[in-house]
Amino acid sequence: MSEKVEDNLSGNDTAGEMSFWGHLEELRKRLIWSLVGIVIGTAICAIFADFIVNKFLLAPALHSKPPLKIQNLKPYGQMVLYMEIIFVAGLVLSIPNTLYHLWKFIEPALYPNERKYIGWIVFFSTSFFLIGGAFAYYVLIPNALGFFAVFGSPYIENIIDVQSYFGFLVGIILASGIVFELPMLSYFLARLGILSPEFLRKYRKHAVIVILLVAALITPPDIASWIMMSIPLYLLYEVSIIVVQVTRANKRKKEEASA
In the chain, which residue ranges form alpha helices assigned H by DSSP? Predict the structure, then answer.
C-alpha cells in the first residue's frame, strides 16, 4: 500500500494505478457529479417546498402543547426562508449520491475485495445520518418545544420569529445526524490504523465526559433533552468499539494472508 501511494504521488502510472494528475481529474469528476446530485435534489425539494415547510418543519410547533405561534418580521423573510430550506433539503436528499462519489474517489486505495462493500458503506452512512435526524425530529425537538411553550411567565406570550425557529429546528436535526455518524468515523480511523479498540476502552470514562459536553452543545438547554441525547451517543460509542474491533481483526487477517 505504501509503495502504491508513493508511486501515485510521484506521478507514475503503472499496473493500472492512477497518477497524481489522474487523481485530480478523478476528484474533479466526482465533485461535478456530487454537485449535479445536489442540483437535482434541490430542484425536487423546490417542487415540494410547501409540503416540506407546512407539513414537516412547522408540524413540531403546531403540535406542541400549547401550539407555538410563528411570525415573519421581514417583507422578504418568507422568500429567503424558502430558498434556504430548499437548499438544505436538497443537500440532505443528495447525501447518498455525495457519499457514493466520495467512496468512488477513495476506491483506488482499497483492497479489491473491499471495493464490493462500497454500496453497503454508503447505505450505513446514510442510515446513521437519517436515524440521527429522525431521533432529533421525533424525540428531541417535540420535548424541547413542549418545555419552551410552558416555561416562563404566563403574562408573556411566546411568538417565535420564523428564522429563529427554522434555524433551531434545522440546526438540531443536522447536528444530530452528524454525531450519529460516530460508528462510520470509527471505521475510517480503524482502517487507517489510527484507532484501536484498546484505546476506546481505556478512555471510556473520558469519552463519557466528552459525550455529555457534546450532547449539551447540540441540544436545547433543558435536562430532559440533554439526557435523551447522551444515552444514544454513549450507545453509539459502544457500537464504535465493536466496529473498530471487527475492522482491525479483518485488516490483520488480510495482511497476514497477503504476507
Answer: 2-10, 20-47, 49-51, 59-62, 77-93, 95-106, 118-135, 141-150, 162-179, 182-191, 197-202, 204-218, 223-258
**Pairwise CA distance, residues 95 & 54, whole Å:** 23
238-244 CB contacts, 8 Å cutoff, 24+ apart:
239/182, 239/183, 240/182, 240/183, 240/185, 240/186, 240/200, 241/186, 241/197, 241/200, 241/201, 243/183, 243/186, 243/187, 243/190, 244/186, 244/187, 244/189, 244/190, 244/195, 244/196, 244/197, 244/200
The position carrying cell 425557529 is 165
Task: Check: CB of residue 128 under 8 Å from CB of residue 136.
Answer: no
- Dihedrals φ, ψ of 223, to 5°? -65, -40
Is the pTM of the predicted complex or chain greater than 0.85? Answer: no
Q: Which residue has the higher pLDDT, 252 or 259?
A: 252
Q: Is 231 exposed, middle or buried (0-12, 13-18, 19+ CB in 10 A)?
A: exposed
**CA-closest candidate to residue 172, choices 222, 220, 213, 227:** 220
Cβ neighbors of 118 (< 8 A, separation 6 or more) are 100, 103, 104, 107
* Cell numbers standing for residue 238: 459502544
User: What would the pLDDT profile of 170-187 be if each residue is shown by its tens digit?
Assistant: 889 999 999 998 998 888
Residue holding cell 480511523? 189
